[in-house]
Design a protein that fits this description.
The radius of gyration is 22 Å and the shape is elongated. The protein folds into two domains: 147 residues, no CATH class; 145 residues, no CATH class. The strands form two sheets. It has a four-stranded parallel β-sheet. It is an alpha/beta fold. β6 and β7 form a beta hairpin. This is DUF1722 domain-containing protein. InterPro entries: 2-thiour_desulf, DUF1722, UCP037004. Pfam families: 2-thiour_desulf, DUF1722.
Length: 321
């Protein structure tokens, strides 16, 4: 079971993933691109939905490799010798598959793939071997267009600890929203949701933190407001949190303990926040101390803050900062 601070969902989170990353031998050469991180380290936390567009359209493995070919404004997907063109088949597959993936809360793609690359896919100029890394995998692009706020990453980029933490923060937040919306949105639900995410928003974007609150002040059309809020919410979380913003957020939370902590405890918390600010300790250190103080001095508003536990501690994501 996967749980999150403040969330009431009980099922494992659904994440789409390129089949080759799970060790499935679906590559053009009959091999795979297994990611040990995806396959071993985090698999227990998620329900993977593996997809390989090339196998799905019947290309088989091994097979001739394919690449993107640009002819004016049109992108074709063809074999190097031009004997195979699977553009129409891939478009038909995407037309059918993409709508069936609305239940996902994240997607991990294989890099550089002409079907699944998230960015920097090579596009070849028609009739030449001259390419530029300006492309996006055709299936990945359709997913990104259909679900612009779906957290998406490539397996290689997850080796960057900051990108990794940001991705999974968005995955769990997206799922939290998903679960809330299943039973229908109300003004009360929107306001409660925002209340729990205030400090996480502050850490990622003080600007969005200030803008999203007033949006909920005078709700007339709940559905429309929810759509506007979600747009801003996911946009804010995509901005990587900085040490400066985390420090400010921690200091705001610290203010709630002023009446409870003795001089030694106040000094300890201040010192740990400053050590974090200076890069001497990871974010986990002041967060752990705050959680310890919460156990001693319960403060319901702070206890409900997703910021303190945006994802399971066992994922070991807060060593990034």
């Amino acid at each position: 079971m996967t749980t999150q601070q403040g969330s009431d969902h009980t099922a494992q989170i659904n994440i789409g993933i390129s089949s080759c990353l799970l060790g499935e031998k679906v590559r053009f050469d009959g091999g795979h691109k297994q990611s040990m991180y995806c396959k071993k380290e985090i698999a227990d936390f998620f329900n993977y939905v593996p997809v390989c567009p090339e196998m799905a359209i019947g290309m088989g493995a091994p097979r001739k490799s394919i690449r993107q070919v640009r002819d004016g404004d049109k992108i074709y997907v063809r074999s190097m010798d031009g004997s195979i063109d699977v553009t129409d088949k891939l478009e038909a597959f995407s037309d059918k598959k993409v709508p069936a993936l609305a239940h996902l809360d994240g997607y991990i793609f294989c890099a550089k793939s002409p079907t699944c690359g998230m960015e920097r896919v090579t596009e070849y100029k028609i009739g030449t071997n001259n390419g530029s890394k300006d492309g996006i995998g055709v299936f990945a692009k359709r997913m990104m267009q259909a679900y612009p706020h779906l957290p998406i990453e490539e397996s290689g980029r997850l080796h960057d600890l900051v990108l990794r933490e940001n991705f999974f923060t968005r995955v769990y937040a997206h799922n939290d929203w998903h679960e809330m919306m299943k039973s229908g949105v109300t003004k009360h639900k929107l306001i409660k949701f925002h209340s729990r995410y205030k400090y996480l928003l502050m850490a990622h974007s003080p600007v969005w933190y200030r803008d999203l609150g007033p949006l909920l002040a005078n709700i007339e059309d709940v559905e429309q407001t929810a759509a506007q809020y979600f747009d801003g919410f996911m946009t804010a979380l995509k901005i990587k949190a900085t040490r400066k913003n985390h420090t400010s957020t921690l200091q705001h939370i610290q203010g709630y303990f002023k009446k409870h902590l003795n001089t030694t405890q106040k000094h300890e918390l201040t010192q740990n926040i400053m050590k974090y600010r200076e890069g001497l300790v990871p974010l986990l250190v002041p967060i752990t101390l705050i959680n310890n103080y919460l156990a001693q001095f319960p403060t319901p508003y702070i206890e409900e803050q997703v910021y303190l536990t945006p994802h399971p501690e066992a994922l070991k994501l807060r060593y990034a900062y």
